[in-house]
Amino acid sequence: MKKVCMFGLGFVGLPLALSFAMRGCQVTGVDIDEKLVADLNQGLTHHLEAYEGKGIQEILRHQIDQGRFQAVTDGQAAMKACDHIIVTIGIPVESHKHDMRPLIEVCHTVGAGLKAGDLVLIRSTVIPGTTRDLILPILEKESGLQAGIDFDLAYSSERIAEGRAFHEFEHMPAALAGINPASTQKAFDLMSIVTRAPIAQASCMEVVEASKVMENISRDVDIAMVNEFARFCKAMGIDIFEVVAVANTHQRVNLLNPGPGVGGYCLPNALFYLLPKADEIGVSLNLLSAARQVNEEMPRYVADLVLRNLKVAPSQAQIAVLGLAMKDYSNDDRMSPALFVIEALQNSGCTVKSFDPAVPSRYDFKVDSLEEAVKDAHGIVLLTLQHGIDFMNLDRLMELMSKDGQPFIVDTKNFYDPQLVWEKGFRLERL
In terms of pTM, does the model score above 0.90? Predict the structure, then answer.
């Protein structure tokens, strides 16, 4: 039975820890958030994950009851009983600048608790070269041990989509590389406990680090392209969603649908993990930077669609925002486009009330019911599809809304049938 120590119990770390526990490993999860740790040890989590018909809370409680999972705040103590250490700590990005401090602090903790024979597997998304150039020296200095001789070190990219974590840990092909062949093999053996899909063993850790960042940026670029197409189609007076559907009848074309922006922790941050290395080696990334700018401008574009539909001054307007998560059917609101749409509307003078029953975060503009969000609103903005929001009760929505000008809906998800919305008395605006 392998004993695993998981550093970071967020959207990646918790389901990964439970994936190992479900397969018989003894898992200790480490996080500095004391409330999170206390909640997890009571079997409580806000995550919306499931596996084989069981929700993550049921899985969590069962693994606790079986004695295979516990959460703690003391990382060094946790490592005493573990020989396989996995790090899933993210690198925050603010104002286009990455912050390595959380990852560095964890690596100091890991290094101080490291023992001969341990494996350290980094699964954070990082600047290419980070594992070898930054993490390895910290681990060696803190432990007094040598990587590849006294302990094993490897990197494996994270590829899951939030909401499908358990399934994709098991079935998504994976990639890894170690500091030497022995480390690669040990990491492969550990990952094979959970992953049934092929696991590619790359020639070096930098290949896997770079491939992960490029995977995320490729999605960002694809979305930016269709978001730019959306503006073009709007100016032409044609429907972007119909254009995408027709274009996708070509067997070698697979356009995505446009949206209000790109959110979450992975895609928006990816470019800013690649740029530092690009600057260091003197390579310009003009296309990737332009794509990021297009996606960052989408929330302002959506806000402008709202403003142009108002029949009252923005300072007198109330807008209902439905959906706060960064994508459909998620509870993750990190860097959500909805937050930036709301900020743009508020900066324009509008009063905003938002509703999303899945997102646990509290905001001044967030209310606890659909009725409260929509009451006296001049317009509705649909930003994220979500269970628990009755989008189709159009008669009730019309009844609640302000009659100061014709109520309108800005639909960024291509959710509504235009004919039905018009029959119910709304004006409809799509991307």
Answer: yes
